[in-house]
Amino acid sequence: MSILKKINEELKQKLESIGYKVDNITLLPSNRKDLGDFQINDAMNLAKIYKKSPVEIAKEIVECLKKDPKYTNINIAGPGFINLTLSEEFLTEELNKISTDIHYNIDKPEFKKVIIDFGGANVAKCLHVGHLRSANLGEALKRLARLMGYEVLGDAHLGDYGRPLGLVVLEIKKMYPKLEYFNKDYTGDFSEIDLPITNDDLEKIYPLASIKSKEDEAYLEEAREITAKIQNHERGYYDLWKKVVEISKSEIKKVYDTINVDYDLWLGESDSVEYFDELNKIFEEKHLLTDSDGAKIILLEEETDKAPMPPLLFIKSNGSISYETTDLATILQRKKEYDPDEIWYCVDGRQELHFDQVFRAARYANLVDEKVKLEFIGFGTMNGKDGKPFKTRDGGIMTLKDLIKLVNEETIKRINLENISEEEKKEIALKVAIACLKYSDFIPHRSTDYIFELDKFADLEGKTGSYILYSTIRMKSLLAKSSGIKQEKMHSINGETEKEIGLILLNLPSVLSKTLETKSLNDLTDYIFKLTSAYNKFYSENKILIEENQEKRESWLVLTSLVYKTNLLILDVLGIEVPDKM
Ligand code: ARG
Predict the structure, then answer these.
(1) In which domain, by residue range, is 453 found?
(2) Do 212 and 267 lie in a common domain?
(3) Does residue 234 sit in the same domain as residue 327?
(4) Closest protein CA for atom 2 of ligand 1
(5) CA pair distance 400, 406, nearest whole angstrom
(6) Total number of domains in the chain
(7) What is the tens place of the pLDDT at every residue in 244-271?
(8) Taking the model in full, what pTM does it have?
(9) What is the residue with the minimal CA distance to atom 7 of ligand 1?
(10) Are 452 and 558 within one domain?
């Protein structure tokens, strides 16, 4: 249990010992630092319950707290607000405990098994900026949840099903009609066939096929037929589709790798299809399907709805299944194969209605137990300076690869290291670029749209990834320089800045818990900025390595290493890698 939580538990018992029963009592950070570091406001409530004056109760509490040496400077303000400060001895001792085990001060919630559906890249299409947000958010939540003791499986849930794939295969057929994949008489092994197509080609093929299908009805019809062939696992077409998925997946993996995103499960929409028959049976047996012009739909409207709730299109009139249905089948699949307590979906906020529909239908059919939580974790869009979705310089759609290239160009300009090879410089610039991109993406609450400022996101001053990285690297090199010096423990806290750092460190668990609850990383980016800024103030106030008082120097080094370790822990949650230098 975290330090402050332990204190709260202890306070509750102290109150009980003087005759007051409360469900919980909290030591709150004070907003009047001149009166104390913390405040306790519970006397007001107790006054109502016990019909006494709050000041009288506050006085009794103060008397009781005075017997505990961890509290100093205890006083009452106004009608019964208690102010107090944690003693420097206590703070020092607790910081030493965190320093030996960083997990000492982290609260572990009740164990859960969670599947996080994030990334959502689409096969044979470019990853775009929206996919970046989903991947960043999901990866960070995965890491955070693991830190807090959850068992987590991250699933890429690739968009590998439906008409886009039919279009791509059709266009390949138009380009290379003689490929064996389209030869009915070919009986050989398709894996031996050299497909003259790279991922770059695929990224051009889909937009082209998409335009053609809009202009040419016959082309569209052919794409429909091919989609059906793929879905019926017809030899040749199905094999080519698998090949396309493979090519595309290896490229998708590369891009995710660059942004430190990784998956336990590389499943796709198509993997859910084997559960479709069972799904269909469940919905049929529960009489949840309604005929509608040859299609089958699920009616979802309820009397208490405040917004329109359209029916879910379960099977289209042409017999194919919808995006909603693959999501329902995926829920069934996840239930059967992994049996999670919760499923989190990190998806663009504009898909909220889709998930409302899917979740409601899943509930109607009891696809998962009532207590299994299905949570939509929507996010806003990243916009350019004009407030519109981020575009390339010539006005095209910004792919994720374009964006990474662009931010990398920015950070290369800012790396001033001497005596390093061009190669190394590039490597560092890329790490810094990704760090800045991710950090700036986490600053606003996930649900808000925000403007990405290319000229500011990597500044060395202010709330940026560069600032955090630069400061963290500086801590590391200070520690490296101090390697011969004894640094076992902190002996004391010397002054306000050090105390401020200590108090910020004490507060980490509540920030982590809140982040796990809101599933937005903004509080954590705030926190690391505050901690780093406080540390930098301390750094500029003291000459750590040449301090003559040995105990002071040792305390300062231990404090430095504690902040360094905390920064690494948070950066790891954010999926940000720290270069050796920058
Ligand atoms: N592939 C989808 C897209 O690009 C996102 C998938 C989100 N996850 C899900 N289970 N539907 O819009």
Answers:
(1) 400-573
(2) no
(3) no
(4) 120
(5) 10
(6) 4
(7) 999 999 999 999 999 999 999 999 999 9
(8) 0.95
(9) 120
(10) yes
